């Protein structure tokens, strides 16, 4: 019923109910497919403590962690982004997480 309310196909999505935001963030960090030495857990310098707890889970799984100041983010040159994307593809598939407050 929840998926249909969100117009989300059941063969692509699942619904997980937790006791709250802290439990949901912990579950996301524990289940995330970190690739040791390649994945990055980036988070904003201003964030909820529960969101910041994910960085410990990422580090324990061998991922890099990085604090990001939102005011310092800039739009990159599209050609530079394409080159970086190609470099990442050459290294193989991995996932990274960027945690921002709502």
If you had to describe this structure to a student in words, what would you say it looks like?
It is a single chain. 39% of the residues lie in helices and 13% in strands. The chain starts with a helix and ends with a strand. Helix 2 packs parallel to helix 3 (49-60). It has helices at residues 2-5, 21-31, 49-60, 78-90; strands at residues 40-44, 64-68, 97-99. Strands 2-1-3 form a three-stranded parallel sheet, with helices on one face. The chain is built from four helices and three strands; from the N terminus they run H-H-E-H-E-H-E. With 102 residues, the protein is an alpha/beta fold.
Proportion of residues in extended strands: 5-15%
How would you classify the helix and strand content by structural class?
Answer: alpha/beta
The pLDDT mean sits at 84
Query: Largest sheet, order of strands side by side?
Result: 2-1-3
Mind describing the biggest β-sheet?
Answer: 3 strands, parallel
Count of helix runs:
4
Q: Which assembly state applies to the chains in this document?
A: single chain
Give the N-terminus to C-terminus distance in angstroms: 25 Å
Notable traits:
102 residues; alpha/beta; 3-stranded parallel β-sheet; 4 helices; globular
């Amino acid at each position: 019923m929840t998926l249909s309310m969100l117009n989300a196909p059941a063969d692509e999505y699942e619904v997980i109910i937790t006791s709250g935001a802290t439990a949901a963030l912990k579950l996301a960090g524990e289940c995330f497919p970190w690739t040791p030495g390649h994945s990055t857990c980036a988070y904003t310098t201003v964030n909820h403590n529960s969101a910041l707890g994910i960085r410990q889970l990422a580090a324990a799984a061998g991922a890099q962690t990085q604090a990001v100041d939102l005011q310092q983010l800039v739009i990159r040159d599209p050609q530079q982004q394409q080159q970086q994307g190609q470099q990442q593809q050459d290294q193989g598939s991995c996932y990274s997480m960027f945690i921002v407050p709502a």
